[in-house]
Amino acid sequence: MLLLRDNDPRFRRLGLRVSAFVLIGVGIALTLLVLLGLRQGYFVPKTRLHFVAEHGAGLIPGMQVRLSGFKIGVVDAVALNDQAKVDVDLLVEERYIKWIKPDSTAILQQDGLIGDHYIEVAGGSPNQAPIKEGGKLAFAPALGLSEIALDLRQRVVPIIDSVQTTLDTVNDPNGDLRQTLANVRGLTAELRQTRASVDELIVNLNKLSAHDLPAVAQTGQQALARVDTLAAELQTRMPTMLDKLDGTLSHASRAASEAEAMMATTRRAVDTAAPRLPAILRNSDAVLQTSRDALDGASQSWPLKQWLPPADTAAPLPPSRP
After folding, report:
1. Are residues 27 and 98 in the same domain?
2. CA distance 64 to 71
């Protein structure tokens, strides 16, 4: 037994040292665990929320719950209910509840194409009060690769069909495009002919300008010279004609004045004789009646009665009667 005794001073109180080291290690480990728990939100107050999904694809306990890209909680439980749907419970830190409204939506998202899934909470109406403990959120599943491929197919297939229809229309020999190209070719040929005609017309105009234009210009100059002569002669005779015209206008003015005076005199004479016309007409009627009576008396006197033939008392017969 004496041989097992260790008198080395380095091994004195070795058990106490080991115990202290173990306690320090355990303390450090506990401290790290507490710090990690605080960092992960294990020791902060949380609010339990709930939503129902049609299926549980991508939904697992422990997945993150995010708001605007920041982690605000975790998925606590995923279970199948009596309606064959999936009940999902969320634990959200209370300090973030003020941004979650009763009409907020829980959306299943994924980091990239092959990343982890997480729940993104979309904020609701800002005027509403925050959601309460046990509140229910609406759920919108994320599109997977198969759903994205199906949606892409539904969008691309009509475009491919439209392109195929367009190509068929283009390749149709009796289609509008082929007919239009044929018309364009015909129009191009006609334009070439028209250009040839225009070139020929330009050549003829050049020839005409070289031969006939000098004669035309000379004739025009002669006509202008005649016009200048006539203008000079007219300018010479114009004063005499204007003087005669002034005299004629003066005579016409005097004649008009005399006619106006004559009309005034005639109007005064008519105005003077107008009141006497009824009496003159009555006297003329009396004179005519007296003359008629005198003629009747004279025709009945003896000398004139023998000279005048007797009046025919028989009524005249029309030529058609026998």
Report:
1. no
2. 6
| Domain limits for position 196 | 173-255
In 3D space, the residue among 50, 70, 68 whose CA is nearest the CA of residue 59 turns out to be: 50
**How many domains does the chain divide into?**
3
Residues 115 and 190 in one domain: no
Q: Are residues 126 and 199 in the same domain?
A: no
SS3 49: strand
Q: How far is CA 261 from CA 223, 250, 270, in A?
A: 53, 17, 14
End-to-end CA distance of the chain: 208
Q: Cα(116)–Cα(269) distance, rounded to whole angstroms?
A: 131
Strand order in the sheet with 117-122: 46-53, 86-93, 70-80, 64-67, 117-122, 105-110, 138-140
Considering the domain architecture, whether residues 28 and 96 belong to the same structural domain is answered as: no
Three-state SS letters, 226-290 = HHHHHHHHHHHHHHHHHHHHHHHHHHHHHHHHHHHHHHHHHHHHHHHHHHHHHHHHHHHHHHHHH
Tokens of 70: 């920041």
Provide the β-strand partners of residue 79.
Answer: 87
pLDDT of the residue at 51? 92
Residue 243 lies in a domain: yes
Model's pTM, two decimal places?
0.39
132 shares a domain with 77: yes
How much is the pLDDT for 115? 77
Distance CA 46, CA 133 (A): 9
CA–CA distance from 50 to each of 138, 246, 255, 277 (Å)?
A: 9, 118, 122, 128
Q: Which of 65, 75, 62, 53 is nearest to 97 (CA)?
A: 65
8 Å CB contact between 72 and 34: no
Burial of 300 (0-12, 13-18, 19+ CB in 10 A): exposed
pLDDT in tens, 139-173: 888 766 677 778 788 888 889 888 888 887 777 77
Do 38 and 52 reside in the same domain of the chain? no
